[in-house]
Specification:
Layout (H helix, E strand, L loop, with lengths): L10 E3 L12 E5 L7 E4 L1 E2 L10 E22 L8 E8 L15 E4 L6 E2 L3 E5 L4 E13 L2 H4 L2 E4 L16 E3 L10 E3 L2 E4 L8 E5 L25 H12 L15 H13 L3
Parallel strand pairs: 4-10
Antiparallel strand pairs: 1-3, 2-15, 3-11, 5-9, 5-10, 5-11, 5-12, 5-15, 6-7, 6-10, 8-9, 12-13
């Protein structure tokens, strides 16, 4: 049993999803606009299917800064919430090609916190906890999901140039180190299988700091008291206490500074609930 592909390029077409709401502190973003229907595979499979492990590669650019939350709008074929992690790695873009190719001489700069990733019902999300990176880079990302029990993890395609930060338009790639799809180790993300034009894959990377002000910890799912459990009244009152005492982590929404928009942003997270 093997993941389905379209002419070697892992691609599944689905109905459009609603677009994401912009958040403050965004360093780099190719925002999903809700109109695209293509989705591309980015998945670390169980060991028996290692040959099919595949990641998305997108180029990006921003001034050096501490990194916080990374997210990408995505869907799944069965149960994407079964993802045990979402991994995003940052590689140098030094002009020698894509990470993983023979010509590439750059290095990995940093990677998301192991085990911090999840699928929140709309996006694949992880965090960096203040690791610093910037300049011209590649973002390489995938979800860790067992195919036989949970299906495929798919990231929504998005055309055009990044709305925040630098980077070229319509130049996403997939990296399949094991070559299991029979298309080499690197192949372009295309809008309609192997015959379509190359396109991009959505992403949002926010600034952050160590200690939990990056939008995931305390959780983007509303676990504000960091209990590790489901959102409940304790989280609600913990947020109110922080808001009243000027905790900078409660500044969740634009414009900068605490206001009613931050309270509603917290409620949005609260109702999503932690898994």
């Amino acid at each position: 049993m093997r993941p389905r592909t379209a002419g070697g390029v892992a691609l599944v077409v689905w109905a459009a999803c609603p677009g994401a709401i912009a958040q403050p502190g965004i360093l780099a973003q190719l925002e999903y606009d809700g109109r695209g229907q293509g989705a591309s595979l980015g998945q670390d499979f169980e060991p028996v299917l290692d040959a099919f492990d595949v990641a998305i590669i997108e180029d990006a650019q921003w001034p050096s800064a501490p990194l916080g939350e990374f997210r990408s709008r995505g869907i799944g074929t069965i149960d994407p919430a079964g993802a045990t992690d979402v991994v995003c790695r940052v590689f140098e873009d030094n002009g020698t090609g894509l990470p993983g190719t023979a010509a590439y001489t750059g290095a990995q700069v940093c990677a998301s916190v192991p085990g911090a990733g999840l699928y929140d019902g709309a996006d694949f999300v992880t965090r960096f906890d203040g690791q610093t990176a910037g300049g011209s880079v590649f973002l390489v990302f995938h979800a860790r999901l067992d195919y036989l029990s949970h299906g495929q993890a798919l990231f929504m395609q998005q055309g055009g140039a990044p709305g925040v930060g630098g980077g070229a338009a319509d130049n996403a790639w997939q990296w399949n180190p094991g070559g299991g799809f029979g298309a080499g180790t690197h192949f372009p993300v295309r809008m309609a299988g192997t015959a379509g034009a190359q396109t991009g894959v959505n992403y949002t990377l926010r600034s952050g700091e160590a200690g939990g002000c990056d939008g995931v910890d305390p959780g983007q799912c509303g676990d504000w008291d960091a209990s590790g459990g489901q959102s409940d009244g304790n989280d609600f009152f913990a947020f109110l206490d922080g808001f009243a005492t000027g905790d900078p982590c409660t500044d969740l929404a634009a414009p900068p500074g605490r206001g009613s928009e931050d309270f509603f942003a917290f409620l949005d997270r609260f109702v999503r609930a932690c898994p």
